[in-house]
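Q: Given only this backbone (662 positions), what sequence would you predict?
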């Protein structure tokens, strides 16, 4: 893979090009996202989507799109692409598209008669600002450019319609205008590097259609407002820049310099490694003076479980240790008892995840292994870790508690507390209440790490903690085996409740093999690994249920209820592949390098399938394993980066970048 590019023939095929999307994200979470032909197919698409903290923790679409029109000899050539109700495409600007490429940022080249015109787009990495660069490459007569902005000013999860409450007036600012459709929002500034003309023509465009939303069973039509048209002349080789942001640029002359400086910060998406590294940076967002990890684009926010699972790959495997610690510190501020937020943060947190606290302990452990010492990280986060352990043993909300033998159970009617958390009509699709296998594997790893860290503290060690927990953990492997293992079946039960074992073949059992402290023997681990490999492994990750199971659903499609019923019933998740690979190296050592290298390199085509340069949330369980769900997912990218570390260091990878060979 060199870089992503499409020619005229490929771009003109809307059936294919409308499925390919790009996302340009700034460090504060603002993003520009659309299809590669510029036709918004999701309600989440927009050229300036940002947070509005005074309203909620969600993203808001302020600028939905821009429609550019080339004017020459009194003829107009509309370069935009928009879909209206009934699958009507108007205008059809894709017919003028000659070339699209994404090396460091999206670049479109149009050919209209004798005019060659180029458009470039980027979100400034550190400024809350979208910048577009328009260049007339070739023309043989006077050429003008008209630009029509379409405004939404609504929550990214919602839709908007023509209404009398919208403020349809705009105000002039240097080289542009500012608009604010509703009082609670920020002003949106649109300013050019030259002084454009502006023709005020406020109007609503009705029945704009978002095909992806309709396919997903949601309402998919809305009305968008335009305040009018910008108009200015173009000259060959003299670019014009447009900046869009929440604050006025005192001197629009700076826009070109900002664009050039921003381009210097962007790295080319010229191979799998560079794409994953660049994608990793898009998930770190600074909001309200706090660094967070966004779970995925376009519809996820900062989720606790996703944050903890993603952090080692996103930060430690890319050399951003300071950000790793900063995120952990922010999460600890929201810790309540044992629990960490599953969704949201601060006052809007929801504490309904049984595994997020145990993944937090894993994060502390990963940093200790990365640094080669527990002392520094344990001094800061040891109290929070021990709080998790003590509160789990004591028991608390959502039926979380510990048996006398040391096993962890959890469950509450109507709630799905593990990562398999889909709920339809108030009932979890995969309830998994009782004693889930991965929760107990994570629990054993957490307590064993805490014991290791305390024992390494020397004279400062909490001896009471050690004396209370070491005897229980010494017996835990036998307790775990008796609870979850069946020699005849050759794999681990997924959950156990009231002595009833659920023998569904699911990927959760792989954590009992992959984690630094494993409660099972190498022989049992080998059998588990072979079962998972034989029944669940695909080129895009692990299936969530074996195809032999009558409940298996190999294609993720339909309305929300239909999709949720498939979400963990066969759908493939890439993040699980990291623990599968780690288990491979633990059991078989460096002999697995060739096999793992093939798995890793197999993701190169996936970089062009959904979001250019990133990895999707999920994939179908059946071939051809099509990308589904969120188009760019933090833990998918993160675990591929961890796999890259395993390839670099082989069986020593756990000690190098998050893991421990036992």
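A: Predicted residues:
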């Amino acid at each position: 893979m060199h870089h992503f590019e499409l020619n005229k023939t490929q771009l003109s095929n809307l059936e294919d090009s409308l499925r390919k999307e790009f996302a340009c994200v700034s460090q504060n979470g603002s993003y520009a996202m659309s299809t590669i032909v510029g036709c918004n197919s999701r309600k989440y698409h927009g050229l300036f989507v940002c947070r509005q903290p005074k309203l909620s923790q969600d993203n808001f679409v302020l600028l939905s799109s821009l429609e550019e029109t080339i004017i020459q000899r009194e003829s107009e050539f509309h370069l935009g692409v928009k879909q209206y109700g009934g699958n009507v495409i108007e205008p059809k600007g894709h017919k003028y598209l000659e070339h699209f490429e994404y090396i460091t940022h999206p670049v479109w080249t149009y050919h209209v008669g004798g005019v060659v015109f180029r458009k470039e787009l980027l979100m400034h990495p550190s400024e809350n600002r979208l910048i577009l660069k328009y260049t007339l490459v070739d023309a043989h007569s006077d050429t003008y450019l008209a630009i029509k902005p379409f405004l939404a000013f609504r929550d990214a999860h919602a839709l908007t319609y023509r209404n009398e409450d919208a403020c349809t007036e705009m105000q002039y600012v240097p080289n542009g205008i500012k608009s604010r459709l509703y009082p609670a929002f920020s002003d949106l500034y649109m300013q050019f590097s030259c002084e454009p003309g502006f023709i005020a023509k406020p109007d609503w465009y009705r029945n704009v259609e978002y095909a992806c939303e309709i396919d997903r069973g949601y309402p998919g039509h809305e009305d968008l407002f335009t305040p009018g048209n910008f108009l200015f002349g173009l000259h060959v080789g003299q670019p014009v820049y447009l900046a869009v942001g929440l604050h006025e640029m005192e001197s629009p002359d700076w826009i070109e310099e900002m664009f050039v400086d921003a381009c210097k910060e962007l790295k080319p998406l010229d191979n799998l490694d560079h794409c994953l590294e660049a994608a990793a940076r898009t998930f770190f967002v600074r909001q309200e003076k706090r660094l967070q990890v966004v779970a995925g684009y376009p519809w996820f926010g900062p989720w606790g479980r996703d944050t903890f699972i993603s952090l080692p790959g996103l930060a430690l495997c890319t050399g951003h240790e300071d950000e790793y610690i900063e995120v952990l510190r922010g999460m600890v501020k929201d810790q309540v008892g044992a629990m960490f937020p599953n969704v949201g943060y601060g006052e809007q947190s929801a504490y309904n995840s049984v595994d997020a606290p145990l993944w937090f302990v894993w994060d502390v452990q990963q940093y200790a292994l990365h640094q080669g010492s527990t002392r520094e990280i344990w001094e800061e986060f040891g109290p929070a870790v021990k709080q998790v352990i003590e509160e789990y043993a004591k028991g608390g909300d959502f039926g979380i508690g510990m048996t006398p033998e040391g096993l962890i159970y959890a469950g509450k009617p109507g709630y799905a507390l593990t990562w398999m958390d889909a709920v339809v009509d108030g009932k979890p699709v995969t309830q998994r209440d009782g004693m889930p296998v991965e929760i107990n594997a994570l629990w054993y790893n957490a307590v064993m790490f805490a014991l290791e860290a305390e024992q390494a503290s020397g004279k400062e060690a909490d001896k009471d903690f050690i004396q209370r927990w070491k005897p229980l953990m010494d017996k835990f492997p036998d307790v775990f085996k008796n609870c979850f293992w069946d020699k005849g079946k050759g794999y681990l039960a997924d959950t156990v409740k009231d002595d009833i074992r659920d023998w569904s073949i699911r990927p959760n059992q792989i954590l009992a093999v992959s984690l630094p402290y494993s409660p099972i023997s190498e022989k049992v681990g080998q059998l588990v690994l072979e079962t998972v490999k034989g029944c669940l492994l695909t080129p895009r990750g692990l299936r969530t249920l074996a195809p032999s199971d009558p409940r298996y659903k190999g294609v993720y499609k339909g309305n929300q209820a239909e999709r949720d019923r498939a979400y963990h019933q066969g759908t493939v998740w890439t993040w699980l592949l990291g623990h599968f690979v780690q288990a491979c190296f633990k059991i078989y050592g460096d002999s697995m390098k060739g096999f793992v290298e093939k798995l890793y390199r197999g993701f190169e085509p996936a970089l062009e399938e959904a979001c250019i340069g990133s990895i999707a949330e999920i994939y179908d369980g059946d071939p051809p394993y099509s990308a589904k769900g969120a188009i760019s997912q933090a833990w998918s990218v993160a675990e591929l980066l961890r796999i890259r570390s395993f390839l670099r260091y082989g069986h020593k990878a756990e000690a190098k970048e998050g893991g421990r060979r036992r």
